[in-house]
Specification:
By secondary structure, this protein is α/β, with parallel strands linked by helices. It contains ten helices and 13 strands. The strands form four sheets. Strands 3-2-1-4-5-6-11 form a seven-stranded parallel β-sheet, sandwiched between helices. It has a two-stranded parallel sheet with strand order 7-10.
């Protein structure tokens, strides 16, 4: 297979690329290496892939229509797409809303257009987010729940991506699968995520900001479990008629199916770091939700998805990597 991965220098994208290369696939990776967080981290992830048999990298902005169209002309043999590039972050969407519509809506549209013009396309998998559940108060979150009350622009753009994918599956019978990720963490993670922020602060003796007075729960999901789910989804393109409305489009939750209280998550990091955190309790932030919890019955049944990594194992692995990466 020849697989295009967008966001290949990102946290999830770099791990998925490595796993696909491990099983002998040809991977074409694209990323614009933007400055939302330190590009040096993205370069370090890419360095782990560079030189591997079957890997090609092109620096490309997914919202650049000409550049994306050029991929069809030069790489028509692409038969699968893993679209993970996005402007991430709930809170940053309050500061830079236009970057979210550009990347998560216009960029997503460019990838859908790419997919429909690839002559040999078998399947496109794309990243959605647990944020689409927004103000939903029913736990656990199920793919059958209504998702029409987003609480952040980030969530709204991710939901828009799902609706656009459904439309393209209907119009062009494109096999498309959306994956709603639940709070992914692990080695090579993002600096704006809680595992990184808390670990960095604890190791340097700085206070950590604990929102909603600590009364929060998250379905923290380890990166290796997410990668297994992405690849299982990629290997199972939906048949025409498999999805809602009789179109070849499905959406899966990929989460740990075991929400963790924020105070327990912090305690796991404290244990792995060997020191206690200095906590500053703050109110809930705009756009946040008090709890996330993935119902994964559909992913279990159809994908064989089975998360296996509790935070008692995943957090020490992350902290070990974090220390090594920073030479500490």
């Amino acid at each position: 297979m020849t697989i295009l991965i967008t966001g290949v220098a990102g946290f999830i994208g770099s791990h998925v690329a490595a796993a696909l290369l491990d099983r002998g696939e040809e991977v074409i990776g694209i990323d614009d290496l933007n400055g939302y967080y330190d590009p040096a981290l993205k370069a370090a992830r890419l360095a782990r892939l560079a030189g591997r048999d079957g890997f090609v990298f092109r620096r490309t902005d997914i919202a650049d229509r000409e550049a994306i169209r050029d991929l069809v002309n030069h790489r028509p043999a692409i038969d699968r797409v893993v679209h993970l590039a996005a402007q991430a972050g709930v809170r940053y969407s309050l500061e830079a809303p236009h970057s979210y519509t550009r990347t998560n809506v216009e960029g997503h549209l460019c990838l859908l257009e790419l997919a429909r013009h690839l002559p040999g396309l078998v399947h496109m998998v794309y990243a959605s987010s647990s944020s689409v559940y927004g103000g939903n108060r029913h736990l656990p979150f199920s793919e059958a729940d209504r998702v029409d009350t987003p609480l952040s622009l980030y969530a709204a753009t991710k939901r828009a991506g799902e609706l656009m994918a459904h439309t393209y599956a209907h119009l062009y019978r494109l096999p498309l699968t959306g994956l709603r990720f639940f709070t992914v963490y692990g080695p090579w993670g993002r600096p704006d995520m809680s595992a990184w922020l808390f670990t960095d602060a604890i190791l340097t003796g700085r206070p950590i900001r604990v929102f909603n007075q600590g009364r929060m729960q998250r379905d923290f999901t380890y990166i290796d479990d997410i990668v297994s789910g992405v690849i299982a989804a990629l290997d199972l393109p939906p048949a025409d008629g498999a999805g809602e409305g009789g179109v070849p489009h499905r959406v899966f939750n990929l989460g740990n199916n075991a929400p963790v209280a924020l105070e327990d998550f912090i305690r796991a990091i404290e244990l792995a770091c060997g020191r206690e955190a200095v906590k500053v309790l703050e109110p809930m932030q705009p756009g946040d939700v008090p709890a996330t919890y993935a119902e994964i019955g559909q992913a279990r049944h159809l994908l064989g998805f089975e998360p296996r990594t509790p935070i008692s194992e995943g957090i020490p692995r992350f902290v070990e990597w974090f220390r090594a990466y920073h030479g500490n």
